[in-house]
Amino acid sequence: MSAPARDRRQVRLSRALGLPLTPKAEKYFERRPYPPGEHGRARRRNDSDYSVRLKEKQRLRAQYGIREAQMLKTYKEAKRLPGLTGENIVELLEMRLDALVLRAGFARTIAQARQFVVHRHICVDGQRVDRPSFRVKEGQMVHVHEKSAQMDPFQVSAAGAHRDVLPAVPGYLKVDLESLQATLLRRPKRDEVPVTCDVQLVVEHYSR
């Protein structure tokens, strides 16, 4: 998929889900904060309970850019853990390598973060990792490979160019942006994770 086509897809998905998924989509979303299509402005009938829960699950999935199979697998794992299942889901998703690359400011979007990982630009404790779903453990350091750090996209990141469009670095991450290094200090807490989602509705969707 070409970059313009991917951008259009993200804008359309953002409008359908009611939240901007990328900085570019946010600009379009501000001008057209209603669903896409010829009937997007029309008053819509009340959604069913099922559609409300489904949409909330889709919103969470879209913010991490993951497939349904990955989402379902995360739910099942979260259900086995102690604590609230909904909060566990978000915490597990947030410990994915691609999510932490984004939170650290190494990438501008989750799609770019995933691309960096797949292309083997990202290391964990000195070892290259090419799986976006890799679960980072507490105390592990995520960093850009020494050779990759000289590339233009990472030089831009190191200069802090993405900070104007990304949320503040959460408390569970220690980031040295100039060195393109970040350490996961501890397990994330739901209220610290900058995603928009009613996690209880996601749990209700899967447990129906």
Explain what you see.
The chain has 208 residues and is of the alpha+beta class. The protein is 45% helix and 8% strand. It is built from nine helices and five strands. The chain has a five-stranded antiparallel beta sheet. The chain is globular. The two termini are 35 Å apart. The mean pLDDT is 87.
List the helices and strands and how they pair.
Layout (H helix, E strand, L loop, with lengths): L2 H15 L5 H9 L17 H16 L3 H13 L4 H10 L2 H7 L6 H9 L3 E3 L2 E2 L12 E4 L7 H7 L14 E4 L4 E4 L14 H8 L2
Antiparallel strand pairs: 1-2, 1-3, 3-5, 4-5
Helix pairs in contact: 1-2, 3-9, 4-5, 5-9, 6-7
Uncertain segments = none
Give the structural class: alpha+beta
Task: Please tally the β strands and state the result.
Answer: 5
Described by strand count, sense and barrel closure, the largest sheet is: 5 strands, antiparallel
Order of helices and strands: HHHHHHHEEEHEEH
Instruction: State the separation between the terminal residues, measured CA to CA.
Output: 35 Å
Characteristics of this structure?
208 residues; alpha+beta; 9 helices; 5 strands
Can you summarize this structure?
The chain has 208 residues and is of the alpha+beta class.
